[in-house]
Amino acid sequence: MGKLSDNLNTGEASTRLSRRKFLTGTSGAAVSLSILRPELIRGSQANSKISLGLLGCGGRGTWIADLFRKHGGYEIAAAMDYFPDRVNAFGEKFNLPPTRRYTGLMGYRRLLESKVDAVAIESPPYFHPGQAAAAVDAGVHVYLAKPIGVDVPACRSIEASARKAAEKKLAYLIDFQTRTDPFFQEAVRRVQAGDIGRIINGEATYIAGSPWLRHLEELKLNPADPERRLRGWGMSRALSGDIITEQNIHSIDVMTWILDQHPLRALGTGGLKSRNLGDCWDHFSVIFWFAEDVIVSFSSKQYGTGWDDILCRMYGTTGTVDTHYAGEVSIKGATPYAGGRDGTLYTTGAVRNIATFYDDITRGRFEHPTVPPAVRSNLTTILGRRAAYKLAEVSWDEMLRSEERFDPALTGLKE
Fold first, then answer.
1. Structural domain tally of the chain?
2. What are phi and psi of 51, to 5 degrees?
3. Are 208 and 254 in the same domain?
4. Are strands 265-271 and 283-289 parallel, antiparallel or unpaired?
């Protein structure tokens, strides 16, 4: 894997990622435990399971750990969360002894010292780069939730640790569910083969309510309490990257996947109007310009009720591709594709990624095809965020040169 600056510099020819990297390595059935190669898993014996540590024992962390267990090829061996109540509840559910439960900001380092084979990182996004890099340094395989980080230096860190993982023959997978969906894969393949003609413009949206209402009520009790702020990390732009990075990346990722390139520049706006706590915005509107003057309008909101959808549409000279997360995926026009719908994509996508991660480890596949597109879509969200914050046009190159690092002000939290 080349450096971020090599993979993602401006220019149409250099912005395009290999289609093979998008459409391979994203799905696969689990193999029999009998063919497990022990030399690929430190501390494992033939016919044994992959010992897995879970970093982040909140709702999604507990949920995905259960999917790892149901796969059959993993053993939940250790867990870490800043908060003792969360890791203890997790430990009781998965029968972990107290000695295999770790807390505090540095709990992940103690977990890695306990000699697990792999980690699933489900912590707030700010912590992803440091935890992933430490795992690779410890010789541990990495399963990483999106987004990969909150700023440009974080994206550089992820690319560097993934490159080191390849050198050390470690698996490193970024968990995007849509990229595992056969309907999405086939629609993208057809569009890139020319089935909707030349793309002129498009739209991407992420319309949803707020998942942080309970934490909002807790934060109101003492907004200065760093632990309350950490529990409600989705309202902190330094911890989450703001909603355009933490949530909206799903639709933005599909946008860059279909076009197979990053945008050249963006102009945006947005704001926070639905609450008076936290500094994450609750709506964004951004125009992205791609090569050949392809324009994509993006909008999102995270408040209220009445309509929810995560979509990406591209309009070509002979047709339209219409995609919805866990909804219909199709092409309409001169060369139609009926497509279909996976209404449980949130789960089935994770299940497929968990199976692929297992296969990567046991079969010695260390090409990491999920990393370059994850870096690109993450940087695209940062470009849109930066343009919206500045209320001005920002180029890809300007954004890429940024050394700004978000500071979550962790003072007062326990190590």
1. 2
2. -80, 125
3. yes
4. antiparallel
For 126-214, list the strands marked E by DSSP. Answer: 141-145, 172-175, 199-208
Q: Which residue has the tokens 């695209």?
A: 380
Across the chain, what does the average pLDDT equal?
Answer: 90
Q: What angle do CA 156, 1, 28 make, to 5 degrees?
A: 105
Task: Give mean pLDDT in consecutive 10-residue pieces for the chain, a chain of 415 residues.
Answer: 43 35 32 39 58 97 98 97 97 97 97 96 98 98 98 98 98 97 98 98 97 88 91 95 98 98 98 94 98 97 95 98 98 98 97 98 97 98 98 98 94 92
Q: What DSSP string describes 210-261? A: -S-HHHHHHHHH-TT-HHHHHHTGGG-HHHH--HHHHTTHHHHHHHHHHHTS
17 shares a domain with 154: yes
Three-state DSSP class for residue 103: coil
Pairing of strands 118-121, 50-55: parallel
Do residue 155 and residue 84 come from a single domain? yes
Same structural domain for residues 193 and 261? Answer: yes
Contacts of 409 (CB under 8 A, 6+ apart): 226, 238
Give the CATH number, domain containing residue 221: 3.30.360.10
Report if residue 381 sits inside a domain. yes
Residue given tokens 């907004």 in the structure block: 223
Please check whether residues 357 and 385 belong to one and the same domain.
no
Number of neighbouring beta carbons within 10 Å of residue 251: 26
Residue 10 lies in domain: 4-178+349-366
267 located within any domain: yes
CB 383 within 8 A of CB 249: no
Cα(225)–Cα(241) distance, integer angstroms: 20
Residues 161 and 219 placed together within one structural domain of the fold: no
Helix (H, G, I), strand (E, B) or coil at 38: helix
Q: What tokens does 181 get? A: 């969906």
